[in-house]
């Protein structure tokens, strides 16, 4: 069958989230409880790594379609279809009307590719406000060598590299001088607390 990203006309949402279905980094789609549901903690998880054919997709759509919509919500099936659509589009990289052969579906590759896609959607750039906040917190001082502004140009760097999944959050950002940041590159540097420059 040919594959069209917008074939079902479903709306775009936050990457990895489709209604009450959420993608987890262990390669599962989880159906998480909603405060409006009438039963306590209903829960499903679908391990995408175990998928071997498109038949696995249709099995789960059919299975969830047979559930009581009063318990799981009116859009639970549509949201699951959207999840599979998103996973197949970004995970198997099927574009431009190429033929999709169900026997070639590899769940592990699907998870690997989709995880890379999610990482690419993360915010990398540091906002001006966040930059000032990190500079003030680290006292305008390189956290590796102790150099201070204005003696050296200072940069905001990801402690755990963005290229390896590090987030652009205050606890993962620090101040480095330009030479130290260039030397660190995308490596993970662990400094003893006693050696951290403040």
What's this, in brief?
The protein is α+β, with helices and mostly antiparallel strands and about 200 residues long.
Count of extended strands = 6
C-alpha end-to-end distance:
60 Å
- Please indicate the count of domains: 2
Q: Residue ranges: pLDDT <50 for 5 or more in a row?
A: 1-12, 95-99, 193-198
Give the SSE string.
EEEEHHHHHEEH
Radius of gyration: 22 Å
Largest sheet: 4 strands, antiparallel
Structural class: alpha+beta
Helix content: 25-40%
Shape: elongated
Strand order of the largest sheet: 1-2-3-4
Mean pLDDT rating: 78
Q: Supply the number of helical segments.
A: 6
Strand content range: 5-15%
Q: Keywords, please?
A:
2 domains; 33% helix; alpha+beta; disordered C terminus; 198 residues; 6 strands; four-stranded antiparallel β-sheet
Describe this structure in words.
There is one protein chain. The protein has 6 helices and 6 strands; from the N terminus they run E-E-E-E-H-H-H-H-H-E-E-H. By secondary structure, it is of the alpha+beta class. The protein folds into 2 domains: 105 residues, no CATH class; 68 residues, no CATH class. The strands form 2 sheets. Strands 1-2-3-4 form a 4-stranded antiparallel β-sheet. Strands 5-6 form a two-stranded antiparallel sheet. Helix 1 packs antiparallel against helix 3 and helix 3 crosses helix 4. It is elongated.
